[in-house]
Amino acid sequence: MDKTSFGYRAWFQPTGSFSTFSGGKYALFAEEEFQRGHVELFGEDKKGVSFEINKNLPAEGFSITGDATTAKVEGGCESGLLYGAYRLLFALRRGEQTFTINDKPAVPLRILNHWDNGDGSVERGYSGDSLFWRNGMVGYDLPRLRDYARLLASVGINQISVNNVNVRLLTAKLLTDEGLNDLEKVAEVFRPFGIKLLISVHFDSPVWLGGLKTSDPADPKVADFWNEAAARVYKRIPDLGGFLVKADSEFQSGPNAFGHTQDVGANVIARALKPHGGTLHWRCFIYNCLQDWRDTVTDRPKAAYDTFFPIDGKFDDNVILQVKYGPSDFQVREPNSPLLGAMKATRESLEFQIAQEYTGQQKDMYSWAVQWEEIFDQPFNETRATRDLVGKEIEAVVAVSNTGNDENWCGHLMSQSNLYAFGRMAWNPALTAKEVTEEWTSLTFGKSDIVADGVDSAVTKMLLDSRHVYEKYNAPLGICWMVYVHHHYGPSPDGYEYAKWGTYHRADHKAIGVDRTRKGTGYTAQYQPYVRDLYENLDTCPEEMVLYFHRLPYDYKLSDGRTMIQYIYDTHFEGVEGVEGFIRTWESLKSKLPDEAYAHVRKRLDMQLDNAKEWRDVINSYFYRKSNIGDEKGRRIYI
Ligand code: GCW
Description:
By secondary structure, this protein is of the alpha/beta class. Helix 8 (262-273) links the parallel strand 10 (242-245) and strand 11 (279-283). It is built from 18 helices and 16 strands. It is globular, with a radius of gyration of 25 Å. It has helices spanning 26-42, 78-93, 142-154, 169-172, 177-190, 205-208, 220-236, 262-273, 303-308, 368-377, 416-427, 433-445, 448-451, 455-473, 529-536, 546-549, 564-588, 595-627, and strands spanning 50-53, 62-67, 72-75, 98-103, 109-113, 133-134, 137-138, 159-161, 196-200, 242-245, 279-283, 319-324, 347-353, 394-400, 511-512, 552-553. The longest helix has 33 residues, at 595-627. The chain binds 4-O-methyl-beta-D-glucopyranuronic acid. 4-O-methyl-beta-D-glucopyranuronic acid (GCW) binds next to loops. Residues 115, 123-124, 165-166, 246, 250, 285, 329-330, 357 line the site of 4-O-methyl-beta-D-glucopyranuronic acid.
């Protein structure tokens, strides 16, 4: 590949020179965007390409016809036109010459949540500081923020929240005139790109900002506060998407604190948003984070379903319940949340995490795309996969962002592939990890067919392998949580074992795992009967998550005849070998890569190798010490 070509910073190179949006004329904007992108990618203006709104096309949809010199882009609305412009650039970049592309999003809301704090830090952020906040107030670099908006729009993201769901006083102030002076400007940056803002709000805002003595949602003064707050916000940002709330979760207050169920708290805020067309996104990540480890009856994965399923149908029609993909918390391997698709009379969204909180923190290479495909593949019942609910019962796909002000946006160059993949798979959940990864590598490194250097296919393979390599050196077979408490990087098998977070594997000298069948904690009963039976039965339970559902002895025989303990040893040695393999591949590409990109990833791979070795040795020693069963292959285990 051309060593000076755009690629390594993002699939679009931020050049800093941005033609200013002149307001109102979105069609023109799409064309400007196209020309700008073309200059970046190919060094010249593209003549002869035309752009037109075609109201017969679906909203946000587009069509591209013609050939590379006479292409015509039509969009169902301004955003559709813009998406068409980006898609044409991508197609040209991939060497396509003639076009008959018709596309539209399968999912109406494709949302990024930023966990950015007012002081500029980012909760679970591994890519530098916030792109939105500095020193206690909204603060940004305008050209950079525009490039960010463009990056997100180029993959179809259409809403973003700009502050952490753990709202503190600084960002709570977004509901005040002072906060809105700044936020209004951010909205202006994102608006031409078809991206609406959301605000994370604190449930105690009536006390914090309104001077009230209570936030009890049943108190009429509290309802008045929310009505006034929503009116104030919408006066300044009429197209705001709505509010996002984390309530009754991890020390945040909520309706429960006042003796109410979740619907009572959500509806009072939703009713304030309703006249303005706003949506309330209400998170379902609720559990007891002060559990006593001696309590073997309470089972944290049951909590979200137990809290929300009984109140299905009680939420107003502008409330969307935001459900994390798994019942634990963004773990490397979990079953899908039984709440997804279960609530027939309540709107739902699916929450992913692009930030690699438990998956290597953007030091280790990890493809979320592979895991998302697996998540979409998981069955909802005997006839439908989870993917089949997305765009129907599940009307929004949301993800915690992995971006920050690092030059390459995502900390690890390879983690850009996750941001790209999120947009593409939220747009079309039928896309495979392989497809979207190939798109990203060819856009970023150049397509081999054109530059004939094989970098894109080598990197695609690394990425597609990365999820399983990471999983191999992590906690085995869906056991979860063997990480250091709080910062969540590196192995600490008993770190959470005697803590209050409700995450226990209960390993002893014979067995490990929690029996979550109906004979155990009863968690499996929350699934549709077909899925419940699948997980309860050891013969049908997917082996890679067998320890999520069952307590098993170390000499339990897996389907390939290996004992569980031997499988643990084998995979942990293989995980380290996998990382060594990545290093060999990357080194073999050195002469074909920009020096800076090569060195950057090479350094991260060294960190990953250290991490993988640490995991291997800690996990293997832990299980050897518990079980007293040695490795059949006699490899080194530290006793
Ligand atoms: O995964 C946990 C994180 C918290 C986060 C919480 C949540 C924003 O460790 O940092 O808080 O999830 O999703 O609310």
